[in-house]
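Session log. Operator J.P. requested a structure for one protein chain; no other inputs attached. Running the standard single-chain path with token output.
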Amino acid sequence: MITKTLELSPPPILTPQYFKQFPAPPANCVLYLPGYPPMGTTITDHSGQATPNNGTITGATWTRLPNGLWYPSFDGDDKINVSHATSIDIDTEDFSVGAWANLTTNVTNYRTILWKAESAANYAGYYMFFSITTGYFNGGIDGVAQASVDINDTTNHLNTGWHLYFMTVDRDSATGLKIWVDGVNVATGNPTTITSLTNTNPLYIG
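Structure written below.
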């Protein structure tokens, strides 16, 4: 059972019927960033939380696709910062995280999809990223004072277009850590050795 869900969705169709056409956030969603409205330095959380977890855009630019959809484009050092909040902090719950992404630059360093973890010491938290040089999709969790559990596929995602990347975590199953690409399970790991993921860092996207 997934008790928390964080999701960065694809850009919306910009019509007056936007909220009728775009999927509602899933149950128990605590972060939902569909990129609407596509303007300025704020990306709005539509999860329905009493206190929205809006993100602050640094460097990334709004870019429009030929079909009219908008998305924030990152050039390697850009990011979206979602301030730490209890709702997006994971302790020992089951959870899922997901984002649409299109890797278009040579991977000479890690390319973060999303990251909410300590930046030093035990790195407690959760994250998804593309690997250095290989372009493999990685997902992982790291407990307080515990070794991380990281898994990856073996596909170079550079210049393969838009894909939906997801990680799901069922904490009491030996095969409960899974990463997905476009709905297909591409790698599995054991999250049962990891306890609390709690940390006070922001959630970074990009």
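Operator note: Helices lie at 18-21.
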